[in-house]
Design goal:
Blueprint (H helix, E strand, L loop, with lengths): L9 H4 L21 H22 L3 H24 L5 H26 L9 H28 L7 E3 L3 H17 L8 H15 L4 E3 L17 H14 L1 H30 L1
Antiparallel strand pairs: 1-2
Helix pairs in contact: 2-3, 2-4, 3-4, 3-6, 4-5, 4-6, 5-7, 6-7, 6-9, 8-9
């Protein structure tokens, strides 16, 4: 045998001397299914845009309902994407842009048209403060969404850092909706509306932790929540059926206060342990 001849590699050609067949190409999932979660995102975007139009026409009840519809659709689109295995970077970015309209611009403009515009009755300076407060809320919503997207892979899923934009929008919308249902004029509550707008905006960009209600965050059963969450959810649904605006306002206000309350509780616990 010629020593310089290359040896046959039986591991590549097999015992028959033939090269193995090329590996089968991975089966690609049809792109049509990606339309499903993006349809829900588009529905939320439409609801937010409708809220802006309705508020400009003085239909504040309809505008607030549209914001809550957008919040429901925002909660559905991500779950649909995970269930159908159709997550994509496009969907993430599209969802953030839709959230900026539905939970940033829409609540700010609803509050402005309902009440903050009346601050001009107290002078030109306060009139500027009215629209600047609305802008502050919208800017904080944009910053909140950008921070969430940049930290989504490194934060604990049990918590939100800062008030989530749908929760802030729910506080704004439920405040306007409740007052409108009670026949209260936005012009008479312009300073209360100013306070709600500023507090909701600053809460979104704060470092306060809020419970995300997404489970324990660790282990194979991280998506599970305590059993007590079920009766609480049933009670909330019953209250929503009886009086939606007041129930949503109470739930939004309690959730807003839960973050600072937990922060104070944890700080006192550390002081007692020290």
């Amino acid at each position: 045998m010629d020593r310089d001849a290359p040896e046959r590699d039986d591991t590549q050609q097999g015992t028959t001397g033939r090269a193995p067949p090329p590996p089968a190409a991975p089966r690609l999932r049809g792109r049509g299914i990606y339309l499903l979660p993006n349809l829900f995102t588009t529905g939320g975007l439409f609801a937010g845009f409708f809220a802006i139009i309705a508020a400009s026409q003085g239909r504040f009840g309809a505008a607030c309902v549209a914001i809550f519809v957008a919040a429901v659709l925002d909660g559905i689109d991500g779950r649909v994407a995970r269930l159908t295995n159709t997550q994509s970077e496009f969907g993430v970015q599209y969802d953030s842009l839709a959230d900026l309209i539905s939970f940033g611009m829409a609540p700010a403009l609803v509050m402005y048209h309902w009440s903050l515009v009346a601050l001009r009755l107290d002078g030109p300076t306060l009139g500027k403060i009215g629209w600047l407060a609305a802008f502050l809320y919208a800017a904080c919503a944009a910053l909140r969404l950008a921070r969430f997207n940049s930290q989504v892979d490194v934060v604990d899923k049990r918590w939100f850092i800062g008030l989530a934009s749908p929760a802030a929008a729910g506080l704004m919308a439920s405040f306007v909706w409740t007052c409108d249902e009670l026949g209260l004029r936005g012009a008479d509550l312009r300073y209360a509306a100013l306070a709600v707008t500023v507090v909701a905006g600053l809460a979104m960009v704060s470092r306060i932790r809020y419970t995300s209600f997404k489970g324990s965050g660790t282990g194979p059963r991280s998506d599970r929540v305590p059993f007590v969450a079920l009766p609480i959810a049933v009670a909330v649904l019953i209250a929503l059926w009886i009086d939606p605006p007041r129930t949503l306002l109470a739930a939004s206000a309690l959730y807003l206060l839960s973050g600072p309350a937990q922060w104070i509780w944890r700080r006192r616990a550390r002081q007692r342990a020290a």
